[in-house]
Structure formats: structure tokens, C-alpha cells
């Protein structure tokens, strides 16, 4: 775990990006994170690892913890084949992550730069976002633009997308 985290911290240091780190017990869901007594827990976001039905396109979607996404609507919006949740095996293969540790920082493990990162536009209103540093025993808080910079400098495709307010049946 320490090695996975170290990749993130080295990248942030090299880029001169300021961040706050909070250590905590392993968290696997947003509901578990909400139970923590954190002052800034509203800055923590939900991250979903998705794939199309032919397993040709892989996406990491970051959205506000209180939103749900309709995968049919999302696939139409991004001109994709039908979307579903990627398997744990795919999560390990593409991002080097385990279930419960999905984070945009996982792209730092994506040597093929094949995973696309989609971020809900509503997060632009936040001062900072909170994401795991490639392991779910800590949360890194940083400016969204700095996270965007890490992703794009690594070479992964990145896009802001409008996700409707609390709709759909999938999360």
C-alpha cells in the first residue's frame, strides 16, 4: 500500500502541488466516509470505474457524493456503447487498484494511458476535492485544477461533464 501512495506523493511534490492528507481506517464506500468525523467530508467525492459492454473503453467517473448517475444517459452523452461497472480484475489491471480504493490518482498506474477520466462539472464550484491516494486508508484534499493537471500531465484523456442533480437508479 505504501508504494502505491508514494507514487502519488512523489508526483504532487514534483509538481509543487499543495495538499492536505488525512489518515483514517480503510474505507470502502462513501457511506463509510460519511461516518468519519471529518470537518471537510463534503469535499470527498464518489469515484466509479466503468467500462463499455465490449470492454474497449474504460472510464473513471468522479462526481459529488450525493449524486447518482444514469449509465444509459451517460453513455448517450459521451457517445459510448452501453456502460456498466468494470470488474475488480479490470480495476487491478488498468489502475492497479483494489475495490474500495477507486481514485483518479489511479491513472498514474495506467501505463497505456487508456482510462478516460470524466469529472462532474458541478465539482468546479468546490474549493477542493478529496480523493484517496491510491489506497483507501487516507484522503488527499487538493484543488480540482491541480488534480486535473496531474491527470493531463500523465497523458490520460480528461473531460468535465454535466451530471444531473441526484437522478437515476445507478450509483
Describe the structure.
By secondary structure, this protein is an alpha/beta fold. The protein has one domain (2-161): YbaK protein (Alpha-Beta Complex), CATH 3.90.960. 27% of the residues lie in helices and 23% in strands. It has five helices and eight strands. The protein has helices at 2-15, 30-35, 71-77, 88-95, 144-154; strands at 20-23, 45-52, 58-64, 83-85, 115-120, 129-131, 138-142, 158-161. A five-stranded mixed beta sheet has the order 4-2-3-5-8. A hairpin with a 6-residue loop joins strand 6 (129-131) and strand 7 (138-142). The chain is globular. Residues 166-171 have low confidence and may be disordered.
The strand line-up of the biggest sheet is 4-2-3-5-8
Which architecture per CATH? Alpha-Beta Complex
First-last Cα distance: 26 Å
CATH topology: YbaK protein
What is the N-to-C succession of helices and strands? HEHEEHEHEEEHE
Mean pLDDT across all amino acids: 88
Computed Rg: 15 Å
* Structural shape: globular
Question: Helical residue percent?
Answer: 25-40%
- Classify the beta-strand content into a percent band: 15-25%
Q: Which residue ranges are poorly predicted, with pLDDT under 50 across at least 5 consecutive positions?
A: 166-171
The total count of strands amounts to 8
Number of helices: 5
Number of domains: 1
- Quaternary state reads single chain
Mind telling me the CATH class? Alpha Beta
The largest pleated sheet is described as:
5 strands, mixed
Structural class: alpha/beta
Amino acid at each position: 500500500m505504501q508504494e502505491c501512495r508514494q507514487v502519488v506523493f512523489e508526483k504532487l511534490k514534483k509538481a509543487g502541488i499543495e495538499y492536505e492528507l488525512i489518515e483514517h481506517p480503510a474505507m470502502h464506500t462513501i457511506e463509510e466516509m460519511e461516518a468519519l468525523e471529518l470537518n471537510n467530508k463534503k469535499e470527498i467525492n464518489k469515484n466509479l470505474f466503468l467500462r463499455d459492454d465490449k470492454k474497449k473503453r474504460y472510464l473513471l467517473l468522479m462526481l459529488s457524493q450525493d449524486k447518482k448517475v444514469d449509465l444509459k444517459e451517460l453513455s448517450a452523452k459521451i457517445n459510448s456503447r452501453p456502460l456498466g461497472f468494470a470488474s475488480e480484475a479490470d480495476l487491478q489491471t488498468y489502475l492497479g487498484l483494489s475495490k474500495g480504493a477507486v481514485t483518479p490518482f489511479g491513472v498514474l498506474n495506467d501505463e497505456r494511458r487508456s482510462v478516460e477520466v470524466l469529472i462532474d462539472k458541478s465539482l468546479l464550484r468546490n474549493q477542493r476535492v478529496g480523493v484517496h491516494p491510491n489506497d483507501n486508508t487516507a484522503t488527499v484534499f487538493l484543488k480540482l485544477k491541480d488534480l486535473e493537471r496531474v491527470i493531463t500531465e500523465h497523458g490520460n484523456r480528461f473531460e468535465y461533464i454535466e451530471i444531473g442533480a441526484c437522478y437515476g437508479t445507478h450509483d
